[in-house]
Write a structure and sequence with these properties.
The protein is built from 13 helices and seven strands. The chain has helices at about 15-25, 40-50, 85-95, 95-105, 115-145, 155-160, 170-180, 190-200, 205-210, 210-225, 230-240, 245-250, 250-265, and strands at about 10-15, 30-35, 60, 80, 160, 165-170, 275-280. A five-stranded parallel β-sheet has the order 4-3-1-2-7, sandwiched between helices.
Length: about 280
């Protein structure tokens, strides 16, 4: 993966193309070379291998997922974790990118002439989407803790959450979740326990909400509440396009990588006028 290692460059290893798309406008791209590892495990292995080989200037950024909650961190000082579940979750909860989406998509709804309506849209849709995504996030975490290993990437939000308040349809949930287990089976009483646990969790909902879930939910809720028929992928793409250096600079990820820059003397974040180059995985 690092066969094109360049001692003069900063080698930034990322999980996937979407991460590169989110970060690329914030990088010193004339000196940073991107390596797409195609997975979190692969990023960590590549960076730890670089550590073993004493290859300087190599760092990786990976999704936090459930690190410190269920998973352990890599022991490498050159592996950095997102503040929230993943980069897309950071984009979503930054506020401004979603506001820009609502401004752009609101003109296709009945609210196009009503600024108060747009503010209501922003608040209602955002809160409903977060509540739905967080519920599934807690299920995903409980699944890992219990060894159930559920595959929830194609979770049917539109059939599980019903009514104007998007309450969980428990009967449907009890039918869906057991069929998504690839590990230890779950029963109906497990589902009841998970619902009770999630309603009393001290863990912030932003920490367990997967980015793509958030965008799927906001797409679903915006369409259902206000008739804004925009796909989740479009919400994601537009939100990412409004992610910028100012928003990134307010994050722990930025601070930690900046400390790494100060320690080792490599550039990561962009300065005005920088352009870039990529290398393939």
């Amino acid at each position: 993966m690092l066969r094109n290692y360049d001692a003069e460059a900063t080698i930034l290893v990322l999980e996937g193309d979407s991460d590169a798309h989110t970060l690329k406008h914030c990088l010193a791209r004339d000196v940073v070379k991107l390596v797409i590892a195609n997975g979190k495990k692969e990023v960590i292995e590549a960076v730890e291998f670089s550590d073993e080989q004493s290859l300087s200037g190599v760092l990786g950024v990976v999704d936090a997922d459930f690190v410190d909650l269920v998973e352990e961190r890599s022991s490498s000082a050159n592996v950095f974790y997102t503040d929230l579940y993943d980069l897309d979750a950071m984009v979503f909860f930054a506020g401004t990118p979603i506001d820009r989406c609502i401004e752009a998509f609101g003109k296709y709804s009945d609210l196009k002439e009503e600024s108060d309506g747009r503010e209501s849209l922003s608040s209602e849709v955002r809160e409903s989407a977060v509540a739905m995504a967080a519920q599934v996030g807690f299920f995903r975490m409980y699944s890992m803790q219990g060894g159930h290993h559920m595959t929830l990437d194609r979770f049917p939000f539109e059939t599980i959450f019903s009514g104007s308040d998007y309450e969980v349809d428990v009967r449907t949930l009890k039918d869906v979740l057991p069929r998504k287990c690839t590990g230890i089976a779950i029963c109906e009483s497990d589902v009841d326990e998970w619902i009770d646990r999630s309603s009393n969790e001290a863990i912030p909902v932003a920490r367990v909400s997967q980015g793509h879930d958030l965008f799927k939910c906001i797409s679903y809720v915006a369409k259902n509440k206000w008739g804004i028929a925009v796909k989740a992928e479009t919400w994601e793409g537009v939100a990412r396009s409004h992610w910028n250096m100012r928003l990134l600079s307010e994050t722990s990820l930025f601070s930690q990588v900046s400390a790494w820059v100060q320690t080792f003397g490599y550039s990561v974040w962009r300065a005005d006028g920088h352009t870039g180059s990529d290398i393939s995985s």
